Amino acid sequence: MALSRKVSTSLFQPIVTPILESRPLCLTLTGAALMQSALVAFNKPGWICPTREYLGCPCPGCGLTRAVAALFSGDLQTMMAYHALAPFFVIGFSFVVAAAVLPHHQRQRLITAVDWSERRSGIATIFLITLFCYWFVRLVIFNQAYFNLIF
């Protein structure tokens, strides 16, 4: 009983809330995402994935910038090819952007709501588990197609 309780409480620990609580971190992440998006939008090379560069293996987020660009341009087929979880990243990242720019009172309400949601549902942990399962399937089962797409 104690082990199952410990597992369930760790599943419901906030992951996004601590990020949202730091306005400087939210501003930095927003700026970095805008810079990367602008580079990709203007067909310039974006930042190189360190995992791909140094380990020769795509990371769980490889292809995400191109997938988001395809999503925003309405090309869902290309988005799905690059990264099927792109819409969820956009939704999640919108909380980071909101926490970066909202006035203090609204920002606190957002943080409280996200914290409540994470503690009740474990949504961030579930998303991370899904992300790593998706990455593993692409890496192991669809290896050649995945590497051709990313490299």
Give me some keywords for this one.
151 residues; mainly alpha; 10 helices; globular
Present the secondary structure layout.
Blueprint lengths: L1 H10 L4 H5 L2 H19 L8 H6 L8 H9 L3 H7 L3 H16 L2 H18 L1 H18 L2 H8 L1
Helix pairs in contact: 3-7, 5-6, 5-7, 7-8, 9-10
Number of domains: 1
Q: What is the tally of helical segments?
A: 10
- Mind telling me the C-alpha Rg? 17 Å
Question: What portion of the residues fall into strands of 2 or more residues?
Answer: under 5%
Mean pLDDT: 89
Strand-pairing-aware structural class:
mainly alpha
State the end-to-end distance: 47 Å
Would you count the extended β strands for me? 0
What is the share of helical residues?
A: over 70%
Shape: globular
Query: In sequence order, what are the helices and strands, one letter per element?
Result: HHHHHHHHHH
